[in-house]
């Protein structure tokens, strides 16, 4: 924990820093009281997205759904809001770069027929989620990466642009002075936006998009573009998506496992909790444990939803007709002091 605190104190991070940390501590207190297995049910349509940037994303996706757009279009437009926002330092334009100062993006999208599209290690395209949708719709493949993904995006009419903002470049140069790589997960530098949607008919879709871990090795791909790890759904059962240390989520096929547990009758909360416990058990003696954070969100076919994280501080935005667009705290296994 002390490393993490020091990192925050001395870190190059700007807008996502101290105030978010304080609010997360307050949220953690609230979360500790709620029973971990409580089942929450929303009306349909229902949208759930990771983190605070889920609120404006949900809002946009909701408006798109209400305007009669498809769920896939709603997801692309919704998560496109944080992708385009330079203040969101973990997604799209303005995202933290890798060790070489390059912003490299991962995204994927999946529909209720189990069709999916994904891009990884994509550079200079502001909306990787929109490219992932084109992979789904216009190619015989599921996943395109790096140069090939960029070439495809250009052929599809996307424009190349520099995604490294002044702020991110400055942060990267500060980081270079020590060049110490230690992923500091949660609100500080890993904040994928994952969004799950149940439409009025009960059909489920999902997507996620991220700039991944700040200061990662050039070429590193996280869980977010990997169907089964960062995102998975089965329209007969439900959907799940992840945020946090992608390596841990990939090692455990996290989102696919959450969906399988829901298939066996677990509620979204219970399923997320069981996979977080599994990740903990696999990593408790691992070098990643000191800074390990993972969080999942999930929905099932009945409109029940939930989330669970390894450590405190994770929250998600939920939107339905009955209760509007709001933030909810995730239950968690442990605080950062453990
Ligand atoms: N899962 C993402 C990755 O590892 C980052 C995050 O959600 O925190 O790339």
Automatic annotation (TrEMBL):
<dbReference type="GO" id="GO:0005737">
    <property type="term" value="C:cytoplasm"/>
</dbReference>
<feature type="binding site">
    <location>
        <begin position="243"/>
        <end position="246"/>
    </location>
    <ligand>
        <name>substrate</name>
    </ligand>
</feature>
<dbReference type="GO" id="GO:0016811">
    <property type="term" value="F:hydrolase activity, acting on carbon-nitrogen (but not peptide) bonds, in linear amides"/>
</dbReference>
<feature type="site" description="Cleavage; by autolysis">
    <location>
        <begin position="191"/>
        <end position="192"/>
    </location>
</feature>
<feature type="active site" description="Nucleophile">
    <location>
        <position position="192"/>
    </location>
</feature>
<protein>
    <submittedName>
        <fullName>N(4)-(Beta-N-acetylglucosaminyl)-L-asparaginase</fullName>
    </submittedName>
</protein>
<feature type="binding site">
    <location>
        <begin position="220"/>
        <end position="223"/>
    </location>
    <ligand>
        <name>substrate</name>
    </ligand>
</feature>
<dbReference type="InterPro" id="IPR029055">
    <property type="entry name" value="Ntn_hydrolases_N"/>
</dbReference>
<dbReference type="Pfam" id="PF01112">
    <property type="entry name" value="Asparaginase_2"/>
</dbReference>
<dbReference type="InterPro" id="IPR006311">
    <property type="entry name" value="TAT_signal"/>
</dbReference>
<dbReference type="InterPro" id="IPR000246">
    <property type="entry name" value="Peptidase_T2"/>
</dbReference>
């Amino acid at each position: 924990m002390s490393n993490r605190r020091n990192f925050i104190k001395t870190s190059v991070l700007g807008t996502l820093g101290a105030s978010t940390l304080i609010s997360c501590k307050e949220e953690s207190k609230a979360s500790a009281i709620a029973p971990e297995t409580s089942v929450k049910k929303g009306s349909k349509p229902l949208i759930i997205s990771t983190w605070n940037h889920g609120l404006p994303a949900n809002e946009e996706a909701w408006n798109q759904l209400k305007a009669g757009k498809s769920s896939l279009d709603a997801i692309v437009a919704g998560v496109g809001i944080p992708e385009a926002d330079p203040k969101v330092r973990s997604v799209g334009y303005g995202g933290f770069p890798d060790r070489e100062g390059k912003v490299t993006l991962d995204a994927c999208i999946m529909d209720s027929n189990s069709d999916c599209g994904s891009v990884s290690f994509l550079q200079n395209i502001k909306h990787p989620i929109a490219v992932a949708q084109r992979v789904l719709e216009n190619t015989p493949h599921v996943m395109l990466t790096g140069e090939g993904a960029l070439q495809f995006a250009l052929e599809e009419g996307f424009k190349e642009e520099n995604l490294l903002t002044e702020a991110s470049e400055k942060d990267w140069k500060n980081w270079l002075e020590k060049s110490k790589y230690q992923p500091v997960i949660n609100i500080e530098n890993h904040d994928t936006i994952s969004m799950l949607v149940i439409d009025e008919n009960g059909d489920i879709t999902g997507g996620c998009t991220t700039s991944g871990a700040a200061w990662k090795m050039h070429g590193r791909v996280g869980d977010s573009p990997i169907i089964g790890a960062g995102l998975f759904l089965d329209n007969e059962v439900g959907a799940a998506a992840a945020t946090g240390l992608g390596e841990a989520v990939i090692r455990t096929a996290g989102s696919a496992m959450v969906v399988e547990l829901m298939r066996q009758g677990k509620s979204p909360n219970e399923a997320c909790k069981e996979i977080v416990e599994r990740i903990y058990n696999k990593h408790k003696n691992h070098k990643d444990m000191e800074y390990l954070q993972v969080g999942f969100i999930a929905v099932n076919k009945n409109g029940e939803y939930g989330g669970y994280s390894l450590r405190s501080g994770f929250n998600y935005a939920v939107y339905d007709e009955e209760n509007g667009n709001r933030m909810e705290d995730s239950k968690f296994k442990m605080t950062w002091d453990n």
